[in-house]
């Protein structure tokens, strides 16, 4: 793997540098600010808070650029077959759409590096913060719980993308014994993920947190999602873990039912992508964006060479819905209504006369505040957060897992129905479902509700099934033809290749994942 040696971020060190009048000799004898290290930095509680903030900040790698007209997050969208491109000007992105990506594909390389940087920063916090004295015990426990959630989340993404991966739990230096780590079996990776999340559950976190920090609802939902994944492929732990997933999701649902102003579904799809609703109600966990530090990176998602923002005819059009996926929504589904999760009309330059776009585009990440809306000019400051865990997913995790425990129950049906009710859809009576038909109903709802949120690809891998837009059913993963490229998925696509440079730097990562060139 790339030798990412964990270090305190520049932003953290800046606040630690003390300036004062010194003579020439004193200056020459002083330790340079760049020589600040974890050993002389982690000394007060403020250092712990600042170091944790750097872990949160590093999670934003998902929105970083990946060459012309592309961002890292497109790795998990291009492969699904639910989107295509209007530009075709980025060869790496084209390779993802065409299912011919390899260890040189920039999105693959950037995701590996980004996830392991998050892990490295979290390891630094978990290793150094316990030694800070004096420090309030509750504050320390909370910070460590947040760090363990962030590490678990990074490992959860990595293990699903590459399978067996290095398990690194301590800060690394060039002299570390395991500086060239081997890959660890997936079972052990998942055990660590569960251990981290169980510890985060016990860290005294609030159920919700409008500041955007990790909260108990997010921890429990992620843990339920981990159990759901472990129940499916490749671990295939089955009924025991479906039960664990259902029970953990139910804890969040039970709290939401008792506290409907704290956790629940938004009444409008507009609220899913509105600055004023960030970190609230349905948004259990989000990547935080503010233009003073980092602006929202989703400009490759909604601009489409049409004058939909203050910039006029601009944008990239590098991720647009396939017509077949858009057409697969049920008649009357409010998500498919213009300016629901998609849009086919907007206002010239963001706030002028309405016009037709000539096709349907993704609206889920569109920020009216920044880009403008009818008669209201945009601020040009895109501070919209990017959702990572929504309560809608909690409901669908519970519905799926509870059904797998035996059969669709009233509670599982109610969870599914809440999601469909908001979409304006009629849900058949509980008695009309079998376990098999209810299973596919929940899967279908996941495709339509959670699209373009970096979730669909992971569903395809854990289920070994892919939604077929033409038949409204589900195909086996291997052999399913992505209508975005008319290319069939192969067995090798269940995992990504390891980066070529990573394997050159660290021969202990061999062998390459099956089906990819060494």
Automatic annotation (TrEMBL):
Q: Which residues form the RagB/SusD domain?
A: 360-516
Subcellular localization is given as: Cell outer membrane
Q: Which SUPFAM superfamilies match?
A: TPR-like
* Family annotation (InterPro entries): SusD-like_N, SusD_RagB_dom, TPR-like_helical_dom_sf
CDD domains referenced in this protein's UniProt entry, alphabetically? SusD
GO CC annotation? cell outer membrane
Record protein name field:
RagB/SusD family nutrient uptake outer membrane protein
């Amino acid at each position: 793997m790339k030798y990412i040696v964990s270090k305190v971020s520049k932003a953290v060190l800046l606040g630690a540098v003390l300036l004062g009048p010194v003579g020439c000799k004193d200056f020459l004898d002083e330790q340079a600010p760049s020589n600040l290290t974890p050993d002389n930095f982690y000394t007060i509680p403020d250092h712990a808070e600042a170091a944790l903030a750097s872990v949160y900040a590093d999670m934003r790698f998902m929105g970083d650029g990946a060459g012309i007209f592309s961002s890292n997050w497109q790795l998990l969208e291009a492969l699904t077959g639910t989107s295509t491109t209007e530009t075709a000007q980025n060869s790496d992105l084209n390779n993802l759409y065409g299912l011919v990506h390899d260890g040189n594909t920039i999105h693959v390389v950037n995701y590996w590096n980004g996830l392991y940087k998050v892990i490295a920063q979290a390891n630094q916090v978990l290793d150094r913060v316990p030694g800070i004295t004096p420090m309030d015990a509750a504050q320390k426990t909370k910070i460590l719980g947040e760090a363990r959630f962030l590490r678990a989340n990074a490992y959860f993404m990595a293990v699903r993308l590459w399978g067996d991966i290095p398990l690194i739990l301590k800060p690394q230096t060039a002299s570390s014994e395991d500086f060239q780590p081997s890959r660890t079996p997936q079972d052990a990776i998942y055990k660590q993920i569960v251990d981290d999340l169980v510890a985060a559950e016990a860290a005294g976190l609030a159920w919700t947190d409008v500041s955007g920090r990790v909260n108990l609802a997010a921890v429990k939902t992620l843990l339920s999602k981990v159990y759901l994944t472990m129940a499916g492929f490749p671990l295939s732990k089955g009924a025991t873990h479906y039960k664990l997933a259902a029970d953990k999701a139910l804890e969040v649902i039970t709290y939401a039912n008792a506290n409907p102003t704290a956790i629940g579904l938004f009444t409008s799809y507009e609220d899913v992508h509105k600055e004023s609703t960030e970190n609230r109600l349905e948004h259990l966990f989000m990547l935080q964006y503010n233009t003073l530090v980092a602006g929202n990176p989703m400009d490759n998602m909604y601009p489409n060479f049409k004058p939909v923002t203050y910039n006029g005819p601009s944008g990239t059009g590098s991720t647009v819905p396939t017509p077949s996926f858009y057409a697969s929504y049920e008649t009357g589904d409010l998500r498919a209504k213009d300016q629901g999760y998609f849009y086919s009309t907007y206002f010239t330059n963001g706030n002028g006369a309405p016009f037709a776009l000539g096709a349907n585009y993704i609206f889920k990440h569109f920020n009216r505040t920044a880009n403008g809306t009818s008669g209201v000019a945009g601020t040009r400051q895109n501070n919209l957060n990017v959702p990572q865990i929504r309560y809608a997913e909690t409901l669908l995790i519970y519905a799926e897992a509870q059904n797998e425990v035996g059969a669709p129950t009233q509670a599982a049906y109610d969870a599914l129905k809440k999601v469909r009710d908001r979409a304006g859809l009629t849900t058949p009576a509980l008695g009309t479902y079998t376990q098999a038909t209810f299973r596919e109903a929940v899967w279908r709802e996941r495709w339509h509700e959670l699209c373009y949120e970096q979730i669909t690809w992971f569903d395809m891998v854990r289920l070994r099934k892919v939604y077929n837009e033409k038949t409204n059913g589900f195909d086996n993963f291997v052999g399913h033809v992505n209508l975005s490229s008319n290319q069939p998925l192969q067995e090798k696509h269940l995992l990504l290749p390891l980066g070529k440079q990573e394997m050159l730097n660290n021969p202990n990562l061999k062998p390459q994942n099956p089906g990819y060139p060494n």
